[in-house]
Design goal:
The chain is an alpha+beta fold and about 350 residues long. Helices cover about 50% and strands about 15% of the residues. A hairpin with a 6-residue loop joins strand 12 and strand 13. It starts with a helix and ends with a helix.
Length: about 350
């Protein structure tokens, strides 16, 4: 069997589990949890499969092609898949994505290994709402990954994935009771000047946003709990506000200008302070590297003296300098003189070359 055929079967199996999760939600919510968790793991394994079949096999076993094609093997867990996506495929999950998928795993484990039964219609309704919130948030992240970051692998399945997306978004009706309860509070806060926008996960106008620009903040949905990192600037071409979500890649909805992390860094840095610092040999305004997303010179010091990675929106109060190459980094540089940083091999690499 060809790898392409196995990949197709794996993806189609994931789509089947997604559809089954939606179908079972109202009458059999615990089975919906199991099916949705299976779907998430299958799509992560499919991305590993697209890279190489051996990545799907658990680290506890040696890769064996004959056992693999016969199904006689143990596959990687969600955390194992996430680790290989980061270290081998070099297209890992963000912290928000992994946290959401882990919540699905915990929910599934509770169902399978303990119990998750509802004893009344009220408890059943509450269970359904909790399940919907988790699944909508996880699907929002998963669908974004499949249609953007991994689109080269999964574009063949755009049509069935779009159908699944429509079915899952219809579930927001189960959360209507939550929205109805908090709507008066939202309306009062809007009158006081606070901003609420439509949540991309549940579809309600319940995502709280900040007014200020050039800061990274968390936009929280009061209905489904989706949390996103957001940063806003004025478009350098037309002046309209541009919103970046979870990463430093964006586009102006008014004029179409595209932005990348390098462009964002140029907008966030205090050029006057950086110029003065450079004349005084102050390296604290130099661009730094991000150990979280492996970004090179994506960390910028801003006007409020904090540091922001313009690629993954990590924020922190200070950077550390590599003891070997003197590059500034977000990671722990305590042993960098020997071990190096993300962009050098340290003294250990130097001695090895000798």
């Amino acid at each position: 069997m060809k790898k392409e055929d196995m990949l197709e079967r794996l993806v189609e199996n994931g789509i089947d589990f997604l559809n089954k999760a939606v179908d079972d939600l109202q009458d059999h919510p615990k089975f919906s949890v199991i099916h949705f968790h299976a779907a998430v793991e299958l799509f992560l394994k499919a991305r590993l499969m697209a890279e190489h079949w051996s990545l799907v096999i658990s680290q506890r076993q040696d890769p064996d092609w004959n056992k693999f094609i016969s199904g006689n093997f143990q596959s990687v867990s969600l955390d194992g898949a996430a680790d290989r996506l980061e270290k081998v495929v070099r297209s890992g999950l963000t912290k928000s994505e992994l946290t959401s998928f882990r919540e699905i795993t915990k929910h599934r484990n509770k169902v399978v290994h303990f119990f998750h039964e509802a004893h009344s219609s009220e408890e059943n309704s509450e269970q359904v709402r909790d399940t919907v919130k988790q699944q909508l948030t996880a699907w929002y992240f998963l669908h974004h990954i499949l249609s953007t970051r991994w689109k080269d692998v999964f574009s063949h399945w755009n049509a069935p994935l779009l159908e699944v997306d429509k079915k899952l978004r219809s579930l927001h009706t189960f959360l209507q009771v939550i929205y109805d309860q908090i709507k008066p509070e939202i309306e009062n806060r809007k009158k006081e000047g606070e901003i609420f926008q439509c949540c991309p996960s549940c579809g309600f106008e319940s995502q709280h946003n900040e007014v200020d620009q050039k800061i990274v903040y968390e936009a929280n949905c009061l209905v489904c709990g989706l949390t996103e990192k957001v940063l806003k600037i004025d478009c350098t071409s037309c002046g309209e506000e541009v919103t970046f979500i979870n990463e430093g890649f964006g586009q102006c909805n008014n004029c179409g200008k595209s932005f990348e992390p390098d462009d964002l860094a140029g907008e966030l840095i205090d050029e006057g302070a950086a110029y003065i610092a450079a004349r005084e040999a102050d390296l604290s305004w130099d661009l730094g590297n991000c150990s979280d997303c492996d970004g090179y010179h994506t960390v910028v010091r801003t006007e409020d003296y904090s540091y922001i990675c313009t690629s993954c929106f990590l924020t922190l109060d200070y950077l550390q300098f590599c003891g070997w190459c003197n590059e500034s980094n977000t990671g722990d540089m305590e042993y960098s003189s020997w071990a190096g940083c993300n962009y050098c091999d340290g003294r250990a690499g130097w001695d090895k070359d000798d």
